[in-house]
User: Fold this.
Amino acid sequence: MARVVLGMIGLGTVGSGVVRLLSQQRHLALKKVAVRDPGKKRHVQLPCPLTTDVSEVLDDPEIEILIEVMGGETPALDHIFRAIDRHKHVVTANKEVLAKHGPQLFERARSKGVAIFFEASVAGGVPLISTIHKGLEANQISSVTGILNGTTNFILSRMEDRQESYQSALLEAQAQGFAEADPSNDVDGHDVAYKLSILSALAHGHFVRPETIYKEGIRSISSEDIAQAREFGYRIKLVGMTERAGGSREDGALINVRVHPMLVPLSHPLAAVSGSNNGIVVNGHAVGQIVMVGPGAGQMPTASAVVGDTINLASALKLPDFASYFQPSISDHWADTLPSGSWRCPFYLRLDVADSPGVIGQIGTIFGAHNISILSIVQRGVHEKGATIVILTQEVINSDMDAALAELKARDFLIDLASCIRIFQPVPSHAQRNRTD
Amino acid sequence: MARVVLGMIGLGTVGSGVVRLLSQQRHLALKKVAVRDPGKKRHVQLPCPLTTDVSEVLDDPEIEILIEVMGGETPALDHIFRAIDRHKHVVTANKEVLAKHGPQLFERARSKGVAIFFEASVAGGVPLISTIHKGLEANQISSVTGILNGTTNFILSRMEDRQESYQSALLEAQAQGFAEADPSNDVDGHDVAYKLSILSALAHGHFVRPETIYKEGIRSISSEDIAQAREFGYRIKLVGMTERAGGSREDGALINVRVHPMLVPLSHPLAAVSGSNNGIVVNGHAVGQIVMVGPGAGQMPTASAVVGDTINLASALKLPDFASYFQPSISDHWADTLPSGSWRCPFYLRLDVADSPGVIGQIGTIFGAHNISILSIVQRGVHEKGATIVILTQEVINSDMDAALAELKARDFLIDLASCIRIFQPVPSHAQRNRTD
Assistant:
């Protein structure tokens, strides 16, 4: 195979892993790496010079593929545009840039005849992008749902396994290097929203503006909810989903896309995704349901995805008109998101109420008036503050639940609406199961 | 995209599913299908004529891709060779032909400049082949382990869930169309051995002669073993594995490859693979561990894999020198298999012994003399036939266990060596987990 010359921007944790894996690929030659601080101590043997001048990478005509692993929105976005304009193919792990500027980036790449590969931007080492794009090519993908953030899954797993508080689990995640000093990007759902935008583009043909994606993080999840969920046969996970809700791939899609905590049935494969792993369920019209689980983060898993992309890109690079064959068809237009009022799912509620007669009756009446059927209701004795009631509902329209909760909050008997968490409903697999073997 | 003309051989369950999915692909034109019995009633609308003369498909110069879904070794093998000789690319779901004749088929394909795509030959709808070949391209794959036969997994799941006997669960599998009238191919491990040969080629570069693969099926698994395993925190699964044990991809590989029942820890993702699903664990040096779960059989999942291959092949077909870029590098030589004597794993044993003093002591002494450390030993009372003892060992060299069992069998106190089943040891993931997110 012919030698392909690469340039790279960024040499942090992932970048160092990429250098290590590239050293095992004889036909890939890394020519130069642009970094902010060339004096920084790095735990990797470099095969090429460093530079602080990105132009030395972006403007070098010999470099055919740019590997962007610096992360962040700026200046990475400018660098990627500049590489595309100079007819370089791009391999990137940058979910933020793709989610916020995907339509423009793919339009520009198309017009310049180059490809953008982005396996590492979602689910780290799990080859989810290539599975949807190539492995499930014969399918119309109806939904992609899963645990897409390793940091929050590490925190939730630890809260359950060791009965730790959110704060204590977060500190441990920070100590182990899974969470940053300011954990907001992970724990408030922004990171998952970026990934959902990218998965929407791949599965439904349209990126979704990250700011239009509903985000609810894990800061308010308590040990008590985790224990209660467990008792009912569930585990609390931060779940992201993108589901086609209407429109068409061509004319503009309506997408049900959101990230929030959910009670996942213990029997479901997503419940078994532990620690910093990611787990994803893909539903396709022919295949039914595929589940993938693996490291959603980490130096070498992420580098595995970056270098996998680079090898695949490089091996086909010399073929004429290559980019048009290998890029997923992604629209220049953003998708619309399904308004929250029409979402449907069952709910888990934990309420602190006054210890007085008729409270359960009033709750039941309010729910009934808003078309909410109760699946389970448990009150175990009373305590000094009153009584704690846990309710699991059947499937509810979101606007009905909002109205019922507003009415509940106006009643004197309600001391605290401690928790309101959605319950995951596994999608039945529609694929037929006739015998083959 | 330019229109690509296809021919097909076989129109059974999978073939009919392929026709249905192809009808959704406007640039793929199915020109002719060769079948044995053109009068047979089929539940699919055909876009093209049927023929009983395979030459009409194989010798038609307009047909660029042959889809082979007739199954079986002969005459499918001849048809595939003939198609290759006529410079047609081949998409096949035929694990038996690939496993038994893979080296010759891929050598011939290389010499004729055509590609063989075979996603459907292993794990049905789960895109395992493309994940290993493309998604994990940057990895040296050390092992592929998993549940590769949906029929036996259906039977074992049913035995556990409904406390049924093997015979009764088999009858149900036959009634539901999962098992054939003669179930030997599935329940004795032949089907898994074919798939392991193919996975060995993909992961390690060499096919393995199916007859050299150790096969132990599920006929002797009893409800009692399933219940005992459960008590110790395990579930019994038919596990196939192919693991690099030495040699090199280039010079000839030594492969630890086998299929036999195993006790899988309930906490391991493979234990959660239920019903007719398949589940596979792939270990790569960079990514660590990836798990995939999905329908390993069935009309539409298998057709999804066949048509996915066809689309991917067709979309790149016009590119010059295409086949050499897209075929995995597979050797013309068969791999050697690691002799059973040097396998290592813990064991589960169930023994019926005489109710006499010193028996446990004698067992312990025999095991100790053969370097076998006991992890757990349980005897719960005695019964009319004596006593039942269940033993879980620590890791044992296979030849040591063979020697110990031979010695046990020679002792008068042994009434019956009822069961001897290996215990699955999850491979620790070697990938580093530094923070990325």
Summary: Chain A has three domains: 4-125+300-326, 138-295+335-340, 341-423.
